[in-house]
Amino acid sequence: MLRTELTRRAIRGRRLHLIHVSDRGQATIAPFLPDSAIHHRVDNPVAVERGPPAEMRDGARIAFIGRLTREKGADLVAQAAREADLPALFIGDGPLAAEVRGIAPQAELAGWLEAGEVRAMLGGEISAVVAPSRWYETGPLTVYEAAAVGVPALVSNRAGAAEKVRDGETGLVVEPAVADLAAALRRLADPQAARRLGRAAYDRYWSAPLTPARHAARLQDVYEAMLSTAGA
User: Fold this and answer.
1) CA–CA distance, 124 with 114 (Å, rounded to integer)
2) Which residue of 105, 137, 201, 218 pairs with 159 in a disulfide if CB–CB is 3.0 to 4.6 A?
3) CB of 19 within 8 A of CB of 222?
4) What residue ranges do the domains of the chain occupy?
């Protein structure tokens, strides 16, 4: 409450500028803000150097990367993998770890890994990443990092990451429900389909890469816009 009141005092009489990392984030919060607010879109940066697109091996697994929580849909991935009779890899940890093990005993729970280890697995041991958030999310970076190396993503239509995925072209966008996820996982189990989607994701990502330099330039544009309206 104190932070909210201090924020109100700081911006009283000034134009409020907000930075959003996804259209979903802006659309969610905009109705609760004054009409005078100025909105800016700045994508999160992705620190991945360009290399050749991933060569997917037969038998590579789908992977959930992140905290094992209900809002992020870790249990949905476990149930969908069991229903589709497919192996799954969970990279991360969280309160649902034991539940995930119980739902899908065949799945591997690797715990938290270094970013470099995860990137080395993409396209080799990992054929697709799954981000089936139940709650609105601005945009998991994992989805963007996967696209940068040529790995497709299966994402929830409630997440901002869905804006970066063309359904059926660079990945798959579904409702965060077990039946929908299981059907999508079966599609991604086909190595040729995964390679086709992954290559399209790679080409699209590198047509406008989310590099740190591009991110910094966009932030500079935003700050200049803020300064130009400071007296307004």
Assistant:
1) 16
2) 137
3) yes
4) 61-207
